[in-house]
């Protein structure tokens, strides 16, 4: 059996533009359906009666999830006419039906295009047109933005009705290990959306690299976290990694610091996935006595400041596992856990991956020197119909767009996004270094440091600072406080790095994936 709808496979970049793929060591068979591997094989391994998903209003064992998935497969194939290679858009907050739809599309040979719940009609339309999507499965509460944007929209309520009388068993479609199963859209901030193509084997490869080798979960674990499943960080941490080992996953529709803490307490969660800011926010809400069940915490999406690492360790006794991942790479490729952690560094290449720091000519730079991060491994970048493939992949290596330093001990230390390096008065300054220093000041809750246009210097370092609230006396923005913060940075970093301008703001603009929207700050007047 081959793919019937070849849109995605035809949209793969030409082979010479692919990254090197170090897939052989994982030993996957040529025919492979990742949903069957995650669901049917986990049940065959004896986990059928174990809890798979804990939603806000629905709890499913692996057996129950399998029946739900298989019934949806029958609807997709028998009723909605899905053939292998068809793209299906998913739109929902993190909940069991979203996960069942994800698995059903994959099991039926389709291609999943999961979208962030906050996307509006314009953004959804771009994705629908770009990936030529004819069918969407949508949570009833999020139908509005999708109405009319997609040829066929089936609500979850409608889907449940259609599924009710379907047979409880569906034979997985016999897909190739290198058939496309997922198009992940990048949280890119400019230009048309970039769709990253991932194969059935890639979905297992991230389980059998970062998760198996660094995170090392087991069947008794209870996963929890905040990233949307449409973000591959959330997909891995809340769906793929738990299912690969027969563990349970708590799915929260709302996952702010309060809901996350309440969820950890209520379900005695053991493994948490979220962004650095969320750990910081949980600390400020107060974690004492509430997170005793946790044994492992993963931070990704943005650099983890050493201050947050230490504060979390002090409050919980847990060493945060930092990891850099990217939509293009599907999941985390540099990380470290336990005794291997070097606070302030992201870690080392995850087993199965290789990483380097290179110059413009792709030559290794000396340890201690800032350069561009280059990685390769079992997963890698393949954009759907996009000339930007040639920017991300060079000589078989994926260039993530990050500036890194490799230290003498083989640890990779994050500096900044390459486009975010600030050039001021001839110096190169990495905003995050200044941010991390400012975060050490008791008055600072959050901050962002960017380059700000300046006639004399080309650019100056400018800090946007959110002051800590709640405490009495309440902190008020003032020139004196700004000067105090400037002196605080000057005392710890080379003076040319101190923020010449400081602006106090109420909140930092962030994406749904927890990333700072630096360009929004750059565009904001002062
Ligand atoms: C940045 C980090 C420093 C970095 C992601 C884990 O973030 C994910 O994917 P995106 O495509 O963004 C990728 C970019 O985000 N970044 C991510 N993690 C870190 N910077 N330290 C980190 N720990 O600039 C990278 O190039 O949104 C993260 C798993 C899956 C993912 N998709």
What can you see in these coordinates?
- The protein has 526 residues and is of the alpha/beta class.
- Helices cover 30% and strands 24% of the residues.
- It has 15 helices and 25 strands.
- The protein has helices at 7-10, 34-47, 62-79, 96-107, 121-130, 156-164, 200-215, 232-245, 257-267, 276-285, 306-316, 389-392, 431-439, 479-490, 518-523, and strands at residues 51-54, 59-61, 87-91, 111-115, 135-138, 152-155, 180-185, 195-199, 222-225, 248-250, 271-274, 296-299, 321-325, 332-335, 348-349, 354-358, 370-376, 393-394, 397-406, 412-417, 421-424, 427-430, 444-454, 458-467, 501-504.
- The strands form 6 sheets. Strands 2-1-10-9-11-12-13-14-15 form a 9-stranded mixed beta sheet, with helices on both faces. Strands 16, 17, 18, 19 and 20 form a 5-stranded antiparallel beta sheet that branches. Strands 4-3-5-6 form a 4-stranded parallel beta sheet.
- It is globular, with a radius of gyration of 23 Å.
- The model has no long low-confidence stretch (mean pLDDT 95).
- Bound molecules: 5'-O-[(S)-[(2-aminobenzoyl)oxy](hydroxy)phosphoryl]adenosine (3UK).
- Residues 186-187, 232-233, 300-304, 322-327, 331-332, 346, 400-402, 414, 417, 513 line the site of 5'-O-[(S)-[(2-aminobenzoyl)oxy](hydroxy)phosphoryl]adenosine (3UK).
């Amino acid at each position: 059996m081959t793919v019937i709808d070849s849109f995605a496979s035809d949209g793969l970049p030409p082979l010479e533009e692919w990254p090197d793929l170090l897939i052989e060591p994982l030993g996957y068979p040529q025919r492979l359906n990742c949903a069957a591997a995650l669901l049917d094989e986990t049940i065959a391994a004896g986990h059928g009666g174990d809890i798979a998903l804990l939603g806000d209003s629905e709890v499913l064992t692996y057996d129950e999830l399998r029946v739900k998935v298989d019934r949806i497969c029958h609807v997709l194939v028998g009723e909605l006419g899905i053939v292998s290679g068809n793209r299906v858009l998913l739109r929902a907050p993190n909940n069991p039906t979203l996960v069942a739809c994800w698995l059903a599309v994959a099991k039926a040979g389709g291609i999943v295009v999961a979208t962030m719940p906050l996307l509006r009609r314009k953004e959804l339309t771009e994705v629908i047109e770009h990936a030529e999507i004819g069918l969407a499965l949508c949570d009833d509460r999020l139908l509005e933005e999708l109405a009319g944007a997609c040829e066929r929209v089936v609500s979850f309520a409608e889907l449940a009705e259609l599924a009710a009388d379907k047979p409880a068993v569906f034979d997985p479609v016999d897909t190739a290990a290198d058939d496309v199963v997922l198009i992940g859209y990048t949280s890119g901030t400019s230009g048309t959306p970039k769709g990253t193509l991932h194969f059935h084997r890639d979905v297992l490869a991230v389980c059998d690299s970062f998760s198996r080798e660094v995170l090392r979960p087991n069947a008794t674990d209870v996963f929890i976290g905040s990233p949307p499943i449409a973000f591959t960080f959330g997909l891995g941490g809340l769906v793929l990694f738990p299912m690969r080992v027969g563990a349970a996953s708590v799915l929260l529709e709302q996952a702010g610091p309060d809901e996350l803490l309440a969820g950890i307490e209520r379900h005695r969660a053991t493994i948490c996935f979220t962004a650095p800011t969320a750990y910081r926010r949980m600390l400020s809400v107060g974690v004492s006595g509430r997170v005793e069940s946790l044994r492992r915490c993963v931070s990704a999406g943005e650099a983890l400041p050493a201050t947050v690492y230490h504060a979390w360790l002090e409050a919980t006794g847990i060493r945060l596992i930092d990891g850099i991942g990217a939509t293009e790479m599907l999941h985390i490729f540099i990380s470290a856990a336990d005794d291997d952690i070097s606070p302030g560094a992201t870690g080392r290449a995850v087993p199965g991956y290789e990483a380097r720091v290179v110059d413009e000519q792709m030559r290794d730079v000396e340890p201690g020197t800032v350069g561009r991060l280059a990685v390769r491994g079992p997963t890698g970048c393949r954009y759907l119909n996009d000339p930007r493939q040639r920017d991300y992949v060079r000589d078989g290596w994926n260039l993530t767009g990050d500036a890194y330093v490799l230290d003498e001990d083989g640890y990779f230390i994050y500096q900044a996004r390459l486009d975010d390096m600030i050039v001021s008065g001839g110096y190169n300054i990495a905003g995050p270094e200044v941010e991390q220093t400012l975060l050490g000041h008791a008055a600072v809750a959050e901050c962002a440091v960017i380059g700000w246009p300046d006639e004399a210097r080309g650019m100056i370092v400018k800090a946007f600072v959110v002051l800590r609230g709640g405490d009495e006396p309440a902190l008020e923005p003032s020139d004196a406080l700004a000067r105090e913060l400037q002196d605080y940075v000057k005392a710890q970093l080379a003076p040319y790095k101190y923020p010449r301008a400081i602006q106090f703001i109420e909140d930092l603009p962030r994406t749904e994936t927890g990333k700072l929207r630096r360009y929004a700050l750059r565009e904001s007047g002062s």
